[in-house]
Amino acid sequence: MRSVHVNCRICGADLPDGAMFCGECGSSTSATPESRRKPDPRPGDTTIVHPLPRRNSGVISIPVGGFLAPGADAQGDDVPVAAGQTPPASSGAAPAAKSAPGESDRFRLRFSTGETRIVFGTGLIGRKPLPQPGERFDHLVQIADRTLSVSKTHLEFGSHDGVLWIADRFSGNGTLVRRPDDGAVRCEPGRRYQVPRGSTIELAQQQIVVD
């Protein structure tokens, strides 16, 4: 009997015949990105943009807390929140690890308005990123998007073997990755995509360059 080639619908890994779970991500072979989606208790007030813009619109996008001024000597430590700003509400996210990660595990995120943040480990990015119950992250990066084109919890990020990956969290306007040597890739919600250094992540009307 001829075998049927099957891939995991969550991470895309090759699966052996008869497999019930993926050996890479541990997902059930019957799982789909939609079935893995956890309900968000907050009202969906994202402004839908059609089509997805390809360039920054000039809207001010200032994440609250933790950003470094352009040209600052980033060492990975959070910068105190500027006067007049309100730090993100505590959502039970895990504090940053005490031991400093290696350079290959650090990533500089350059936002479309010039702000920069050094990240490592895992995190969420959005207007008001909020982990689901039981989730823990090293970073919650909040973007002040007055057009509401960026979802409250727009995407998740992490790293694997020194390469950043992102996963769209079923955002209203989607996520686009522009790799330096591979053109543009529209991200399927719930699936991880590698983002090599030098790539640009587009979140509706906002952009992030990964260094």
UniProtKB/TrEMBL annotation:
Keyword set includes Phosphoprotein: yes
Region of interest called Disordered, as start-end residue ranges on this chain: 26-57, 71-104
Domain FHA: 141-203
UniProt keyword Phosphoprotein present: yes
Record keywords, A-Z: Phosphoprotein
Gene3D superfamilies linked to this entry: 2.60.200.20
Low complexity bias: start-end ranges: 82-102
Ranges annotated as biased composition (Basic and acidic residues): 34-43
Domain of life according to the entry: Bacteria
InterPro entries: FHA_dom, SMAD_FHA_dom_sf
Protein's name according to its UniProt entry: FHA domain-containing protein
